[in-house]
Amino acid sequence: MAPCVLASFDWSEAKLHSGSGTGVGKKHWPMGQTDFGEAKRRIAQLRDEINYHAYRYHTLDDPVISDAEYDRLMGELRALEEAHPPLVTPDSPTQRVGAQPMDQFEKVVHPVPMTSLGNAFDDEDLQAWLVRIGRLLPDDISVTDLAFVVEPKFDGLAVALTYENGILLRGATRGNGVEGENVTANLRTVKNIPLRIPASSAGPSPPSRIEVRGEIYIPIADFNELNRRQSERGERLYANPRNAAAGAVRQLDSRITAQRPLAFFAYAIGYVEGVQQEPEGHAIGCQWEALDYLRRLGFPVNPDIKRSRDLEEVLDFIHQWTERRQDLPYEADGVVVKVDAFALQELLGVVGNAPRWAIAYKFPAREATTKLLRIDVNVGRTGVLTPYAVLEPVNVGGVTVRQASLHNFEDLARKDVREGDTVIIKRAGDVIPQVVKPILDLRLPDSQPYQLPERCPSCGEPAVKPEDEVAVYCVNAACPAQLVRRVEYFVSRGAMDIEGFGIRIAQQLIQEGLIRDVGDIYALDEKRDQLLALEGFAEKKIDNLLAAIQASKSQPLERVATALGIQGIGNVVARALVGAFPSMEALASVGVEELEAVEGIGPHIAHSVVDWFSRPRHQQVVEKLRRAGLQMEAETAALSPQPLAGLTFVITGTLPAMSRDQAKAFIEAHGGKVTNSVSRQTDYLLLGENPGGKLAKAQSLGTKIIGEDELRVLAGQ
After folding, report:
1. Strands 107-109, 684-687: pairing kind
2. Could you list the active site residues?
3. Does 581 lie in the same domain as 541?
């Protein structure tokens, strides 16, 4: 059989009909002075540009214009469409915000069934699969002649996207494989799903009709941030990224879906009609070429997919990802192995509901069974009481687990988890271990349902549960557990980043009365004698701690705003607030309406900010921080050229002098960009001790690898 040739295409050379693709220097039509024909032409031009830049940002992670320029283009398009409603089309970039709620989803019959996969759990299972398909091959083809495509198996929600003449017509869930649900309105909100193909006019002409299959997922970092915001608001936490993604896609109100950090990877073509042939007349003959074709149409395709020539290469890929699964930025529960050639796929066919030509090699389970010894309650920095399980130690995915999350009391009651139960524990990615469910057949006969705590376990004051909230609170402002958590958050990496100042030191200093609020941290240099009298505090430890506290005074205003611990305010929101109100004084005096006018700030956060600054106790804390010399005004952006501008970095391992957050801030302050995963768009891997799998990926791609000293040289220091 003829080999399946990989066609090449360099997106970096892509240009738009309207110019260089940067959007800079284009003619801007004055509002109110455009006739219908001019508006139509300009709208088409803007859509081309915006689609191209969205593709570079969301799919390639390699933008070529600033966010401000992108927003300006989008604002111009939105204004023109508002002025000319007949020109608004479903594929316009402005239509990703979500539509009015629906009563229910329509059913969709898949023209080609979406099959499931058989499983392999070890190397022997995979070899047995290869032997089985070998028996079905023609006499002139041996299994040693086969090529395979190996792909990380995303743990998300499978969907099918149907396009007619390049326009997204319908998006459907897999359902039972034969019939799914029409979730088009929701899938239109996913930013890296093209509403029109190709994503740039430089790509190949779209076929007359194509069904693109893929997975909706939530990146692990975005999932953790989503749950952090849920916890801050005292709302239900999501069990795992897959459930959160599936729930978001099946929202009847697509405006809610638009608020979730969903992403998409394309992995197959369901069917295609009217393909425009390549100039050399080469047709798509295998999975590898299909993936390349999808890339060139503008769909995001996982860069970790590999083509292998034999079983040894396949097993090597599987073993690497089994060891490095923690390095993946998304949840994966295995590796999918596919026979590459479509002709052989058709020959091998389907048995039951699974193709013979593909199999899923499953990673070792991250679930285990153990005894729940007792249910304890944690007191958060905002007073939220959160239950957690104390367990008999058990190994889950290579890690010994002694405690697991129970999310909140409502979730605890829904699952009916009780002390003494034998429970299933799950560990997913970097998410804290969680109790999945009790095994009811093993429940003790005298077990009792868990009762909501009537008092705070730290201070003994009554616990309160507002009628319209899931959370249970301790409302005692002097509760010592809350102060410990507030201090812990204040000094954490994402806030003031005071190295060496952990929760144990916070507990010790609070217990000794040396800290009564976070402002007292900056008065510890006046209490050196008292620190020396504490257990575990020697001269060197005190010197290091005080130096770290002093160094934190240079943290920018957005970090100070984050560290205050205002409910709903993390790094991203703090950056938006400081961008709109560039001083602590301005932020403290702003009203709800002004806050809601800032993009990304809703009524909940606006009221939270105003309420926090209105309290005299908080005002006193801010004044202490001001007197201590913390940054109370935003830094003015440098006007001179930034030496790292246009460069993309990935950080791995432990750096000698900087934390990861400090390194990220350093790179961004000098104009660079930091991403989470290594790709062909990565310019430098910043390498520290004990690196993860990112080092091997960078070496395989030929990415430049530098240390902290070389980074400083690049930045001109």
Report:
1. unpaired
2. 153
3. no
| CA atoms of 569 and 574, how far apart (whole Å) | 6
- Residues 150 and 292 grouped into a single domain: yes
Query: Facing residues of 435 across strands?
Result: 425
What letters, b where the CB count within 10 A reaches 16 and e where it falls short, cover 638-661?
eeeebebeebbbbbbbebeebebb
**To 5 degrees, how large is the angle CA 292–CA 293–CA 294?**
90
- What's the pTM? 0.50
pLDDT of residue 1: 36
Q: What is the torsion angle, in degrees rounded to the nearest 10, for the CA atoms of residue 584, residue 586, residue 592 and residue 598? A: -90
- Give Cα separations from 268 to 17, 174, 259, 535 (angstroms): 29, 13, 27, 62
Q: What is the DSSP string of 371-429?
A: EEEEEEEEE-TTSEEEEEEEEEEEEETTEEEEEEE---HHHHHHHT--TT-EEEEE--T
Instruction: Please compute the mean of the pLDDT values over residues 512-536 and round it to a whole number.
Output: 93
Q: DSSP string spanning 3-45?
A: --------GGG--BTTBSSS-TT---PPTT---HHHHHHHHHH
634: tokens are: 């935003």
Residue 431 has pLDDT above 80, yes or no: no
Query: CA-to-CA distance for 588 and 612, rounded, in angstroms?
Result: 9
Contact 213, 114 (CB under 8 A): yes
Please give the torsion angle defined by the CA atoms of residues 227, 231, 233 and 234, in that order, rounded to the nearest 10 degrees.
Answer: 130
What angle do the packed helices 480-491 and 503-511 form, to 10 degrees? 140
Q: Is beta strand 358-362 parallel, antiparallel or unpaired with respect to 118-120?
A: parallel
| Whether 52 contacts 200, CB under 8 Å | yes
Share of the chain above pLDDT 70, in %: 87
Least confident of 121-135, 205-219, 277-291, 308-322: 277-291
Q: Indicate the SS3 state at residue 332.
A: strand
Per-chain mean pLDDT for the chain: 83
- CATH number of the domain that 282 lies in? 3.30.470.30
**Is 105 within the bounds of a domain?**
no
pLDDT, position 33: 44
Q: Where are the beta strands (DSSP E) in 218-349?
A: 263-273, 306-308, 332-339
Contacts (Cβ under 8 Å, ≥6 apart) of 125 = 119, 361
Question: Domain range for residue 203?
Answer: 118-362
Tell me which of 48-52, 89-93, 383-387 is least confident: 89-93
Query: What's the pLDDT at 525?
Result: 93
| Residue 352 confidence (pLDDT) | 63
Distance, in Å, from the CA atom of 246 to the CA atom of 223, rounded to the nearest integer, reads 13
Strand order in the sheet with 684-687: 673-674, 648-652, 684-687, 704-706
Structure-token pair, residue 669: 């302050």
As a whole number of angstroms, the distance between CA 541 and CA 545 comes to 6
Please give the Cα distance from 149 to 160 (Å, whole number): 20
Residue 144 shares a structural domain with residue 237? yes
If asked whether residues 391 and 417 sit together in one domain, one would say yes
CATH code where residue 591 lies: 1.10.150.20
Residue 687's H or E segment, with its range, is strand 684-687
How many domains would you assign to the chain? Answer: 6
